[in-house]
Design brief:
By secondary structure, the protein is α/β, with parallel strands linked by helices. The chain contains 21 helices and 26 strands. Helix 5 links the parallel strand 2 and strand 3. Helix 6 crosses helix 17 and helix 7 runs parallel beside helix 8. The structure holds beta-D-glucopyranose (BGC).
Length: about 725
């Protein structure tokens, strides 16, 4: 802990001033018309006096250079010790220039572009006055019913860790103190929020500590290793104790074991929510448990403000705990250079120039191109520029393609699919657009217009999906199909017998019954962001060759959920060819396999793998095994392939997954071109958490799998001695 900050500030602060540092005020406090730098929000509702609030440490959700500067100025005029405010907000996949949702970014398998997207988000946010972003969200996800899968990069701990590092480096850059165009990253939601039972938001999480450590914690850890400055607790319980009051998780794993010295913030009202959880008798006990557990900032509620003074007075909380929390917050302020320059990157002129600039939008478009996944294609795509196209569906002409967490993004400024396809086709008359249905409703008039548009077309492109609020926080679903109205629209169009391509807009893996079986081609667009329509038009017309690969499995049906590729085998695995044995691990009404596996994605060209070889059949401690494989572009277009390497530890002290991603590489290949891809497998990649939670490898046999997805692979083997 930094002593100079203690001597300069903390030792001169009253207990009230210290506790006020731990308070975070949300935007409504600054929303009053007129002098909007004044704190005018629901103070009475919260039962607090404005003097206390004037000493608050941070603000959530206020942005815009002029506004932030005005609030900061007024704050400093009123602050006895001149301690500046920290401005924080959720800049999750872009500020004004909205990038594809994180689940889509996960499908790019491209950490460089992910880093660039975070750097641009940071640049726009910083110039608009923000200091901290509540991102990246690093919750591993296995349940598409959960609406927040859209905020994650997927189901794999290794891939998530690669993206964790990329996002943190993009947001923070190399030197937060000097580089005013970056913001501090707040890793969330610690921990295991993605494992909510039944996929219902905020629900119970119950994992063995081994599961937690082996699968759920690595991505958070990777972000902290990359230097992330903050951590947000999650809403859920971890082993029966809400994360926000969980000493073992926060003081044990996060601080003592991992050495994290940055700021921990509660999630929105999660201190107070310990009462509803049944983990605290009242708000006072909740505050006590949170400060004991190591939470520094109370987001949005006044549990700390109202109860810490008394808790210190009666001796239940040592004032040193409060000092520590204050120091961590001041340390972050210092690291961001706020004591020297409280306005930091806020710059109204530059804000006008760079926010939503053409350069930033080009980057968003590129990432949207790389994030879309071609799920099926039976000769329909790419479209021919001369074809008459009927573009039909609720997303044909919709601006609702930004996705959840794009609060500063504007749906009005989106590149829509209709406009982009029309301008690409050259002759605008070749593309006829009809809504076809709403998200949840279909009328006779809509059907008629859709039939009319389709009648004159050579090919039908259906743009269908979930409205953005059907995923995201509070967006859990039990039925993960497209809404009935849109399934009806698909059936109607299918009935015409014309080539049918579907473009999907959605924030989660869907049950694609009624879509995948009906369409000749399916392009997964996710929520592609500000430039989504332009990117999709390029993909549909083949100006860009699709290269995205799923970072989550698409279940065959919701009844299989959770279904993920890195699962364990049972003692009664299903044989390749079924032999009529009832007593094996299977469903009698559905396959075991997902419809589309992790890592899957097609291209307008094709890739063939051959000649998988290992440098040795034996791996010794310090001698990696080299893996080589030849990848050939066997189609007639240039394309990008993502070569994926998986391992299986055939037997362990505890059972090991049937496959685990250990490495991947992307390669661009011209038609007929081939490349030799080389990977090294080292002993450290074979380590795992044993039953006593120690991490080591076990000698024995390993399978190596290499391919273009987690299902279709070549195999080899080696032995660790
Ligand atoms: C969400 C967080 C978010 C916070 C602040 C909460 O409801 O769970 O992800 O950072 O609000 O907006």
């Amino acid at each position: 802990m930094s002593e100079h900050l203690y001597h300069k500030y903390v030792q001169h602060m009253t207990l009230e001033e210290k506790i006020a540092q731990l308070l975070q005020l949300a935007a409504p406090f600054y929303d009053e018309p007129g002098d909007d730098s004044e704190i005018t929000g629901p103070l009475e509702e919260l039962g607090i006096g404005s003097d206390t609030v004037r000493n608050a440490g941070s603000v959530l959700g206020v942005a815009g250079a002029e506004k932030v500067m005005a609030v900061q100025k007024k704050h400093l005029e009123n602050s006895r010790l001149g301690i500046p405010l920290l401005f924080m907000a959720d800049i999750v996949h872009g500020f004004k220039t909205i990038f594809p949702i994180p689940l889509a970014i996960g499908s790019s398998w491209n950490p460089e572009l992910a880093e660039q997207s975070a750097a641009i988000a940071a640049r726009e946010a910083a110039v608009s006055g923000l200091h901290v972003t509540f991102a990246p969200m690093l919750d591993l996800v296995r349940d598409p019913r959960w609406g927040r899968v859209m905020e994650s990069t997927g189901e794999d701990p290794y891939l998530n860790s690669v993206f964790a590092k990329a996002f943190v480096e993009g947001f923070q850059g190399k030197n937060l103190t000097q580089d005013m165009s970056r913001v501090a990253a707040c890793v969330k939601h610690f921990a295991a929020y993605g494992a909510a039972e039944g996929g219902r938001d905020y629900n119970t999480v119950d994992l063995s500590e081994r599961q937690l450590r082996e699968y759920y914690l690595p991505a958070y850890k990777a972000a902290l290793d990359a230097g992330a400055e903050m951590v947000m607790t999650s809403f859920n319980v971890v082993d029966g104790i809400p994360a926000t009051g969980n000493r073992k998780l926060l003081r044990g794993i996060l601080r003592a074991e991992w050495g994290f010295d940055g700021v921990v913030i509660s999630d929105w009202a999660s201190i107070k929510e310990m009462v509803a959880h049944g983990a605290a008798e009242d708000d006072k006990e909740a505050a006590l448990k949170a400060i004991w557990a190591g939470v520094d900032i109370d987001m949005m509620t006044v549990s700390y403000l109202n109860h810490l003074p008394e808790l210190v007075e009666v001796g239940l909380v040592d004032e040193a705990l409060i000092d520590e929390a204050v120091l961590r917050i001041l340390q972050l302020k210092e690291k961001l250079g706020l004591f020297e320059n409280p306005m930091r990157g806020a710059d109204p002129a530059l804000e006008k120039e760079i926010v939503f600039s053409a350069e930033h939008r080009r980057a968003a478009r590129k990432l949207a191109e790389k994030s879309s996944v071609l799920l099926k294609n039976e000769g329909v795509l790419p479209l021919n520029i001369e074809q008459r196209v009927a573009l039909i569906g609720p997303f044909a002409d919709s601006g609702d393609i930004l996705g959840w967490w794009s609060w500063t993004g504007s749906k009005e400024q989106v590149a829509k699919l209709s406009g982009a396809m029309r301008s690409l086709a050259g002759n605008a008359g070749l593309v006829t657009v009809a809504e076809g249905s709403g998200i949840h409703t279909i009328t006779a008039v809509q059907k008629e217009a859709a039939l009319k548009a389709a009648a004159a077309a050579d090919v039908i492109v259906l743009a269908v999906g979930e409205a953005s609020e059907m995923s995201g926080e509070g967006g859990s679903r039990t039925n993960i199909k497209l809404p009935d109205a849109q399934l009806e629209l698909i059936r109607l169009m299918k009935g015409l017998g014309k080539p049918l391509a579907v473009v999907l807009f959605n924030g989660r893996p869907l049950d694609l019954h009624g879509v995948y079986d009906q369409a000749d081609a399916v392009l997964e667009a996710w929520f592609p962001g500000s430039e989504g329509g332009a990117a999709l038009a390029d993909l549909l017309y083949g100006k860009v060759n699709p290269s995205g690969r799923l970072s989550v499995s698409f279940p065959d049906s919701v009844g299989q959920v959770p279904v993920y590729y890195n699962a364990f085998s049972t003692g009664r695995p299903k044989p390749q060819v079924e032999d009529g044995n009832r007593y094996i691990s299977k469903y009698i009404d559905a396959p075991n396999e997902p419809l589309l596996p992790f890592g899957f994605g097609l291209s307008y060209t094709s890739f063939t793998y051959e000649g998988l070889t290992l440098s040795s059949g034996i791996l010794k401690d310090d001698q990696p095994v080299e893996v080589k494989v030849k990848v050939i572009n066997t189609g007639s277009l240039a394309g990008t392939e993502t070569v994926q390497l998986y391992l299986r530890d055939r037997s362990g002290e505890v059972v090991r997954p049937v496959k685990e991603l250990k490495a991947f590489k992307q390669v661009d290949l011209a038609p007929g071109e081939s490349a030799e891809m080389i990977f090294a497998i080292e002993e450290r990649q074979l380590r795992y958490h044993h039953s006593d939670l120690t991490v080591s490898s076990d000698p024995g046999w390993f399978d190596v799998y290499v391919g273009g997805n987690s299902r279709d692979v070549l195999a080899a083997e080696f032995r660790l001695i």
